Amino acid sequence: MMNNNWRHLCVDMQRLFNEDTPWHVDWMRRVLPQVERVVSIAPEHTIFTRFIPPVRADDMPGTWKAYYVKWAEMTREHLAPELLDILPELQRFSPPALVFDKPVYSPWLDGRLHGHLKRQEVDTLVISGGETDVCVMAAVLGAIDLGYRTVLLSDAVCSSADETHDASLELFSSRFSMQLDIMECGEWLDRLAATAA
Fold first, then answer.
1. What are phi and psi of 181, to 5 degrees?
2. pLDDT number for residue 91
3. Which of 75, 87, 109, 134 has the fewest CB within 10 Å, making it most exposed?
């Protein structure tokens, strides 16, 4: 039986980033099979995050307001609501997979996710999704700050910018090696199977 102290945090694998929008991530489809494989092993251990833009730019504070003035077409007053959904290939796993919505890059800001994980006595997070250099980075750094053992699945993360994706993986491996394991999905699943044997 699998240990219960890990969760798969799948970051922002949404139609918003997969379809023809200004925020389209070209190779989200390329990592989807690896993400789906990890989710399918134990969907009850998966938590999907969704990036939820405000209804209008004025609803956000500080520089977020300016951000959404620039990206006004990505506010909810203009955006088709179904684009906020998790990709259909993954959405079918929820429930039992959970969904946590967030208004900013980090899933940790309001404390709900951390509180949920602490109540479940989770100590290990396995992270996939997009984008490597934005929301995934925020998720990883927050997980490290909160003391989780953190595993980044290098073949299950994606970005719209190859150069900063590669630079982010290099940063993670060179500066956070004491607190972060980077591995491919196959290696993680092999380790999981070994603990379940």
1. -100, 135
2. 96
3. 109
